[in-house]
Amino acid sequence: MAFEKTWRWFGFDDPVKLSDLRQIGIEGVVTALHHIPNGEIWTVEEIMKVKNTIEEYGMRWSVVESLPVSEGIKTGSPDSDRLINNYKESLRNLGKCGIDTVTYNFMPVLDWVRTNMQFKLPSGGEVMFFDFATFAAFDLFILKRPGAEKDYPAGIVDQAREKHNQMTEEEAENLARNIIIVSQGFIDGVVDDSESDYKKVFLKHIETYIEIGRNELRQNLSAFIKEIVPVAQDSGINLCIHPDDPPFSVLGLPRIVSTKEDLEWIVNQHDSVSNGITFCTGSLSVKNNEALEDIIRSVGHRIHFLHLRNNLLLPDESFHEYGHIHGCVDMYSVMKLLLEEQHRRISEGRKDTRMPVRPDHGIRMIDDYNRNSNPGYPLIGRLKGLAELSGLEMGIERALHNQKS
Asked: Within 149-188, where are the H helices?
């Protein structure tokens, strides 16, 4: 058996069409109902519109990415009970429609973070870059978050000040818009283009976490898991939380899905297989003290969805993406352990043996420059990654088969 080949598709406005995915051998589509506001119920009717369209092209809706967790749930607001009940109803409706894997994240205010969406590699391709000092410049001198200085080493503050002094007003504004709006706009961000003073609105969202530290956020996640996992289990759905990206605190906000210990804590909040993990090598590999192989050995039995990509790690917690099989991740060792986990599930008679995988992000290259894709999601770059991962998978599978023979 092999992993189910999947692809993230952003709906009917995505420049990559379902007919394109069918041609390149995609088996399962990863998508969401992006038009439904956070916290509202996904109805059977709306789910089936997308599901039926995907199936008309000979594929299946393999994974929901994502069913967004509203900020009110993360903060434990007075409205959280209503939001959690809506979330449960959406899960029930997805289960009625036969969709069995749902990913989500619990990152406060800001989802994934990059400072440069068009970092040029020596090859001429473009990837996304996170420069720690540039991010600090945004936080300290553009956003001007109160008390931000205490969250950075003195050396980084000095570098950030120098970077900010070298920016034009236009460059500073573009950096803020990229971080707050552009990178978040297609994944249900908290601020959009409709806000005239979007930085002020963004700061207000951050302020809601003044009294919420790591322990408080963990308590809210634990309560959420204990509420929704029984509903997911009864609906035939495996939930899989996505790691923080990057896996460390940003803007003074707590991050609680960043390490092996975090993931172990999460799976221990409910003993159901439905309480699972999205294994993202790109996110988890940024902390180079976290061995991905050790994470798989520890919580591999709860991994339900695979995001595979690579990074190059730089000093001061900076990094940039680097395709799929080359970089800081030993993709051979990672994939071998994941395939062994799949074989183990098959031998145990488990139902969750598909283990959908998607090439996560990609290098913008060749004809990608003629397409208006979401940041990190070019067609050719991801197709290259899918081919590389598929070839690696086939070689490992053959070797495992020969070992058994």
From this structure: 154-166, 169-177
